[in-house]
Design a protein that fits this description.
With 80 residues, the chain is an all-alpha fold. The protein has one domain. The protein is 72% helix and 0% strand. The N and C termini lie far apart (60 Å).
Length: 80
């Protein structure tokens, strides 16, 4: 019984260290600011393509704001 309590305590400490490490990395890299910058950039490209160039939104999103590294490509519905 004492072994299980010790094992749970060690697991709790490991989880706490992981949570603190992830929080520290998030704060240091300022990922929230980077996310806002990326969203703003995408909105600017989309608005420029639609309102200035007069293009449709779908091709602008697909061609101009395409991600260079697609680890998880977007899913497309297949209509038969």
């Amino acid at each position: 019984m004492a072994f299980l309590k010790k094992k749970k305590a060690i697991l709790g400490v490991v989880v706490l260290i992981l949570v603190l490490a992830i929080t520290f990395i998030f704060i240091q890299l300022d990922l929230a600011a980077q996310l806002r910058i990326g969203v703003g950039w995408k909105a600017q490209i989309l608005c420029s393509g639609v309102f200035v160039s007069g293009r449709d939104a779908a091709p602008v999103l697909e061609e101009d704001t395409a991600r260079p590294f697609r680890f998880f490509p977007p899913r497309r519905a297949a209509y038969l």
